[in-house]
Write a structure and sequence with these properties.
This protein is of the alpha/beta class. The protein contains eight helices and eleven strands. Helix 1 packs across helix 2, helix 3 crosses helix 4 and helix 4 packs parallel to helix 6.
Amino acid sequence: MAIFECSAILFDLDGVLVDSTKSVDRQWRLWAAEQNLDPEKVVAHAHGVRTIEVIRTFAPHLPAEAETLRLEAREAEDKDGVEVMPGAAALLRSLPAGRWCVVTSGTRKLATSRLQLAGLPISKVLVSADDVEKGKPDPEPYLKGAELLGVDPRECLVIEDAPAGIRSAHAGGMKAIALPSTYPVSKLQEADAIAEKLVGIQVSVRDGKLGVSV
């Protein structure tokens, strides 16, 4: 068992709080086919990375901002198979107000849509692709989350499902727990701990600190 002490927990959204893998996979494959790209390469790169950066990488000839809006609007409408991750609601309820936030590579509109669809609370602090200049694996998203929570980054713990997110957390001086919901365990070895499922993460509060066991 791994035990962490922190002041706040920063959650990735897709693959951590919400199971949207089927929708994400479906829409990126459709987009790749439209652009005559290899869908396997696009999907392998897309999870955990901002849509605009995936588009800039694979289709630099397209107007990235407009294409991002078009693609994420389709994702927001694609609700088939999107559901709350087991244990997500209970875990969020166990956390004190102001001690957690969501840091996602999706836009605010997409993130809000997914949270509402899953019946999860919309965190007071929500860092989306709209709020940063550089997405994961750059540390900016998680550092922004820590700043808005008013917590030292070194006092933050991140829960992620993608290598890009783990690298983002580590680059910001944070520890990271990984969930093998999108990538296999073999791809998540950079994490400080791996939780088989979200329900396996337990949080206690003592003397103003969060104790997190995996």
